[in-house]
Amino acid sequence: MKIRKRNLRSINNLSPFKLIALFYLFAVTVSSLLLAMPVAHQPGVELSFIDILFTAVSAVSVTGLSVITVADTFSTTGIILLAFVLQLGGIGVMSIGTAIWMLLGKKIGLKERRLIMTDQNQTSFQGVVRLIRQIIGVVLLIEFVGFVTLGTYFLQYYPPEEAYLHGFFGTISAMTNGGFDITGASLIPYKDDYFVQFINMLLIVAGAIGFPVLIEVKEYLFKNTTPGENKRFSLFAKLTSFTFLMLVIFGMVMIIFFEFNHFFADKNWHEILFYALFQSVTTRSGGLATMDVGQLTEQTKLFLSSLMFIGASPSSVGGGIRTTTFALLVIFMLTYARGQTRVRVFRREIHDDDLIKAVVVTIMAVMICFVAVVALTITEPYTIGDLLFEVTSAFGTVGLSTGITPGLSTFAKFVLMSLMFIGRIGILTFLFTLKQEKKKTGKYHYPKERIIIG
Amino acid sequence: MKIRKRNLRSINNLSPFKLIALFYLFAVTVSSLLLAMPVAHQPGVELSFIDILFTAVSAVSVTGLSVITVADTFSTTGIILLAFVLQLGGIGVMSIGTAIWMLLGKKIGLKERRLIMTDQNQTSFQGVVRLIRQIIGVVLLIEFVGFVTLGTYFLQYYPPEEAYLHGFFGTISAMTNGGFDITGASLIPYKDDYFVQFINMLLIVAGAIGFPVLIEVKEYLFKNTTPGENKRFSLFAKLTSFTFLMLVIFGMVMIIFFEFNHFFADKNWHEILFYALFQSVTTRSGGLATMDVGQLTEQTKLFLSSLMFIGASPSSVGGGIRTTTFALLVIFMLTYARGQTRVRVFRREIHDDDLIKAVVVTIMAVMICFVAVVALTITEPYTIGDLLFEVTSAFGTVGLSTGITPGLSTFAKFVLMSLMFIGRIGILTFLFTLKQEKKKTGKYHYPKERIIIG
Ligand SMILES: [K+]
Ligand SMILES: [K+]
């Protein structure tokens, strides 16, 4: 298969990919140091090196898998530091990286700009710097609204200082899809409070739907159109939002189907609706939960694993193979099965390069997750279902767990940290950071010869 | 992605694909009737409809998953009928189908010939009929040698009549990769008899390596070369044999690694070698076993599941995604990761069409097997590891089992029968048989637009 020149160029321009990986490692190191400070801990708490590292990786990758209970481990200072780390990770390796280049006065060249480019129609090369400012602005704005709303609302549950701490941490954890909690039991204490759940879902979706979509929505709402100019959403925004919505609805329906005679047996219709909806939304990347995932049936856990494997939108706070990758795969399969020649969606044709990327990402991801599960079965005493759940949760940077995380071996913690790293920076970036040197492209062609498939 | 005209043509020429599926259904019906005859059963044995159907599907697809014990269920007549059904399935839907068209005097048109075409360099359009004769000839020859060798060798274990019955059934079950046994415990009774194991491995490989390879080997060995003519193996033969060999070696090494402190803990080096080698060979498609698979560790079972998912070579008696599909995927990933533009192997370039097929087959297969496992977790009380093993064993038409097959529900039996069907006729054929009508290809192009992947 010819891999077009465009791909080749990005493959050979390694530095930005390496920079992102390096930034990620830098962020993890700084976060580990911050979270290791005695002032960050509750009196008498001592954390092992591996647990601090795991928490830092989980927080920087905004996964939320945790070997510790935040409320029992960290002091208020520690909680605020953790929120800062989530923010660092949430706004993202890409935007933070670009912002740092900006601050350092480094001229943003074509390569770096391409990295955070989302859609050529919507964002010109010139607008990249503006885009980063917009990302940070939009995130802070949403978080401020969330903080005030949740903090004030929580006054009915907690004394003022605690209420606003819960509002502050809860908003950041939801908006960055951090998935950490200071309640000690995720959102289970609010399992009957639909308002808190609703706000949390809004924040999770805002984080997971992808920054480009947020920016486009903002521009759609607030930008004055000059006469003759058409306001339109990009293909990317439409495809990712549609896929996101479909996954949420499909997820909700299947959760209800799988749990109807189990977890939902004694629940009424609005409880079922909110449980299923929240659980479906949170598997995109959120990681907060209103129910104990460990109590769900094997089929629900398997199904949720596949949802977490798909993950969130690109250029969002989430991981996984990404919604767009999944959407392209499905569209590609349907097109092929129908015997049509061109892969289309929303009256646009899809580039071959993008389909190739989608395929490579998916197959690599399946292989990586499979190898991870096999490796974990060697060292861990848990079922394959629970291990697959943990692996896809890490790869999708979701952070849900059936409860086995604190009991994992050091080996397993390193496996999960690697998955969170790969899930967060993305398979393609990961592949490119692995490459050490430019490889020569063969200059002569061999004769072609047919092969039987399937 | 443009799907080339060549694909399009095969997609739109549905009849041959439908014919193969219809032939398969016809073979299953006839086999069910044969196996349902009272004369085929041991005295007093009554089989339910679903168990006869399951046995017929398993035999026609040469899978070997079994809800019954052959020796306890079938009379000598029944065993010979079962061998006949395995032969029918083993020589294959394709060749048998073509042979029937031949016998019926139907002119073999281009479409039908394409179906059993394996390599354009090696087999001309004119040689298709000859190829089928060769396939049947080679199979019968190998089986005759196997029958005489094993039957005579078995004289040390059984009285003459029984020895040759074991030789007869064992040879057919191994050569067709049928996986059924009349010992009641697969090849476990011969776990210390390396000669029997060796002959069985040769037969299994002969069946699973693909008929085109057998024919090429035969021509290589026996054909006189005219001066100036080069004897060479086709790309297909080289790729599939190399992949087959690599999978066997890799499988053996990993099985030793995973079981070293478990099943192999009290075994000496040649026991370990033969157990691991036989187990690795049999997961290609054979289904016979020298050990109780249910005793293996979770990691070995998961790993074997992945080997069974890959399956055997195309145009062989085996199923799965096929060795060539897996090889193309790996080569494609490596090429992409290296940033090279052309996918090559053995000094030949791979066609885009073939890569697209490999990708479609793999992704479809992953989805189908995943959905099957989720479905089975709903109705069956077994672990996900055991269910995945059963599912991949059916899809790869391998027939190994951790021992849960007889305990499965009717629903699960239907799921496994569907998987055996799909695995045997191949995902692409399956896709094409699902299509009801020709779809129009869109005649106008939409503008292209970029999308972010991963
Ligand atoms: K998360
Ligand atoms: K078999």
UniProtKB/TrEMBL annotation, chains A, B:
GO terms for cellular component: plasma membrane. GO terms for biological process: metal ion transport. The chain crosses the membrane at residues 20-40, 52-71, 77-104, 135-155, 194-215, 235-258, 317-337, 358-378, 414-434. It comes from the Bacteria. The keyword Phosphoprotein does not apply. Keywords: Cell membrane, Ion transport, Membrane, Transmembrane, Transmembrane helix, Transport. It holds the Pfam family TrkH. It is a multi-pass membrane protein. It is found in: Cell membrane. One of its GO terms (molecular function) is monoatomic cation transmembrane transporter activity. The keyword Transmembrane applies. PANTHER family: KTR SYSTEM POTASSIUM UPTAKE PROTEIN D, TRK SYSTEM POTASSIUM UPTAKE PROTEIN TRKG-RELATED. This is Potassium uptake protein, TrkH family.
